[in-house]
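User: I'll paste a sequence; please echo it back and then give the predicted structure.

Assistant: Echoing your sequence first, then the prediction.
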Amino acid sequence: MRARSIALKAACMMALVVAAGCKSEDEGGGDMPAGGTSAGMDAPGDGDGDGDGDEAGEGGAAGTNDSGGAGGTVAAGSGGTDAAGAGGAGTGGAGGAAGMALDFPDPRNGCPELDSGFVGDEACLAPPPEDEGFQIHIGPEDYANPGKWEVAIDEENSWCANFHLPNTEEVYYQGFVLSGRPGTHHIINTAYVPTVTLVDGELGMICMDGGTGSNSNIFDNLPGASKAYMPRKLAAPENAGLGRKLEPMLPAQADMHYFNFTEGPLLREFWLNLYYIPKEDVKETAKQIRGMGGIGWQIEPGSNKTWQYQCPIDAPGRIVSLLGHYHAHGKRFAAYLQKGDGSQKKVFEMYDYNDPAEFQYDSVAMNPAFSAMKAGAVSGTLEVEAGDMLQWECHIVNDSDVTLDYSNKVKNGEMCNLWGATVGPKVNCVHFLAEQPFTIQ
């Protein structure tokens, strides 16, 4: 049988819960997330809010103005596997653009009975129905005595929590939603091979993998987070067959970087829902992009520099998503795709470390255009070939009086990491000290 609920307390409150249903009483039973992008792994509903998994989505209404009709939008379904709908054509003007699929409805505030005494109870997610997926809940067992789960005023650190996945048979998943309490900076979730021994509920300072993905016992990266809320994404038609396999009851760890710059205590806690796709529907597997730059940094006070890194693409395919990550001294993050013929184009840009941008590259998403001081990206599918190069750069200004190292410190440490997902190539580069400079065309 698929994953079943395990000991949920009063609206999904129990620590280290992995669940497939939410009950009001016990039933019994470096930074940036690994696999932290949607990877086109959710399929939209049919455009009318009740995705039935059988038909293509319907586009929005046709535009009627003289300057060209606007494309329709596709409302989120309830979990079907439909293709995104096309927008209506304009009347009296040029046809509207194709309809843009939306995220699924925001599922936060899913545990109305939860009253922990800490800020952020609204982050709680109800688990998906048992036949649709399961939940991983990492947090304190007793809110009255949270112990290490509490993040004190001015505290910042990374802790690692052990758990096991709840599925009792092999499953495939296609999409996720993650919601953490205030203070969430990053969450890196990693599943290990079955022979690894981990004790559920243990919370320590050291994870088996330091974030580089180099541990030989890694089974796969699970979805994670670069901010408190990572919404579930609808998939473009070409991504409807993407899925990732999970063997039964895999041991796993959650690397949780939290900080508290508020005037009261916070809690280290998050909820992660994974959604199934039938094995027979899986046609392709998404692979993680891991580009880590700046390891070994010692950036002196007064430094004002743009740091550059590159990673080769080893096979044909496409980039599905990209996400940038740096800290408080980062002023601009940009990524470029350099083709084998030497041509180059900017594909990603962001400015706000507090709201790291994630963009999808497919036939449905309409990303915001590049503009000064606002996040933007190219739109459409992003095809790649062997011999292409994925490049990224971070403008870091150390206007503090301390030397910045590569570390999990939002104000006194920095990073220059590019994450995302591909279909086809593996893009994984961890750069220690040495830069990988390139020329902007």
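DSSP finds no helices and 29 strands in the chain. The first strand starts at residue 17 and ends at 19.
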